[in-house]
Amino acid sequence: MAKTASVITLTPNAKMRIKKLLSEAPQGTVGVKLSTPKKGCSGLAYSLEYTDKADPLDERIVIDDAVLFIDNASLLYLIGSEMDWVEDDFQAAFQFKNPNATGMCGCGESFTV
Questions:
Q1: Of 48, 61, 74, 107, which sits most exposed with the smallest number of CB within 10 A?
Q2: What are the percentages of helix, strand and coil residues in the chain, rounded to 5?
């Protein structure tokens, strides 16, 4: 049986960061959840937080013993995206290359589809 592709691609740096986050997560955490809540000046933002429950409707990306859940309501906004973890002298953050985004706010915190 062919393996199905996930909604997003994670770079090796993003995978390592998610594994590190989960190795230090509060007790009872089952994974990290990615969603796109309505906020910011462009409409949607990327949000990552620990989750203590697995929603069967969420997309699940397993990275060794770590799990990234993608909120079911956010799937359409994220199809084909790449998630990366970038660190430099001034900041460290997850960054997204999202082919569905038609615009971003000036500060880069939110996007439009």
A1: 107
A2: 15, 35, 45
What is the C-alpha to C-alpha distance for residues 74 and 68, in angstroms, rounded to an integer? 13
The predicted pLDDT at position 109 comes to 64
Length of the chain: 113
Specify the pLDDT at position 37.
87
CA 35 to CA 28: how far, in whole Å?
A: 20
Question: Which tokens is 29 given?
Answer: 């955490």
Q: What angle do CA 38, 44, 46 make, to 5 degrees?
A: 105
Stretches where the chain sits below pLDDT 50 are 1-4
Distance CA 44, CA 109 (A): 9
